[in-house]
Amino acid sequence: MGLLDIFKRQKKFSEKESGKAIPLNINCWNYRRFHGELLDIDVIVACIDALARNLAKMELTSIRQVQNRVAVTDTTSDVARVLKRPNPYMTQYDFIYKVAALYYASNNAFIWPEYDKEANLVALWPINYKKFELREVDGVIVARFELLHNHFYTVPYSQVIHLRRHFFNDALMGDENTPFKPIAELMNAQNQGIIEGIKSSAIIRGLLKATQVMKEEDIKAARERFIQDNLNATNNGGVMVVDGKFDYKQIDSKPYVVDAETRAETKKAAFDYFGVNEKFLQNSFTAEEYEGIYEGALEPFAMYLQSAMTIFLFTDRQRGFGNKVQANMAKLKYQPLNTVANVINTTKELGLFTRDEYREMLGYEPLGPDRGGDEIMIAVNNYQNADDVDANVPQEGDSNE
Fold this sequence. Notes:
The chain is α+β, with helices and mostly antiparallel strands. 41% of the residues lie in helices and 20% in strands.
């Protein structure tokens, strides 16, 4: 079952039936994508792809609290199940990648949660749209999507999760990519200029001038014969022969080629717009260089996503009991082995991490609770679990004999 079929099953507001569809300031609320220009440029696609595939490494889990306000991972609820497999066609990696790509490409990403008749969550669908607008129908704000292949669907705005970027001007929508349009057009012009320059440089241009009056058919025949004899690939000697009836003048074609400095400045403008750099795209960064992008771009999106999904997927009462969607960002952190070793060495006497958390830092599979993986480790003379350390601490009234 595809997304279009699922939308058809949903109850929709009928604008024709009510006759009271009131556009909410159509000039302000109507939103159009960047007309495909943004995703037609290699550097821009590379920026969005680099952000999306790094963000897709995070793990979304459902968290709940048990007695003594202890937070544990929920593995049995409908939310926990759907987070593991958002819909029949996407893994969790696919889902996060798609949402992040839509978020950066159009500054507005929408997720539609699907529920069954018993109000259990059964799927999460990122909405890939061509056009989106908000309308007020009988006092209710509804979202009208124009999907691919000219399909239109209208659902209550309160039934979609909305992530927005560049949230400056509009009350509900992220702004369009208008500030970036001149850079995108310049990049497109540069790319086309390079292609045309290569084509032009492969063409020999010249002027063949007749020195006497000739018939039109004779001129045409002379031109074709000149091309065949002198501009053919078989003319290995490179020598042109022209009889006295014609003068040949070579025309030097010097197409404009974008210099490296101009290209670099244009690319930098794209990097600045998306908050990345060339090393991030090429995966050649150091730990310090990656940390800046993690703090400035990756972590804020992860926190935004978990907050939006928590508010939407759980009721106020459930959130009051500690239910939330948590983004595990451990895999987003770039930590070379020497950095991990320093963390372990610094914290080994503080009892901050369990055995499994140390193993995760080193890239090993967890042991699990049955094999002591959840025990907090403390280094005294050697590593012990926290309970053993407490048992060995002398208690009041104890004496050494």
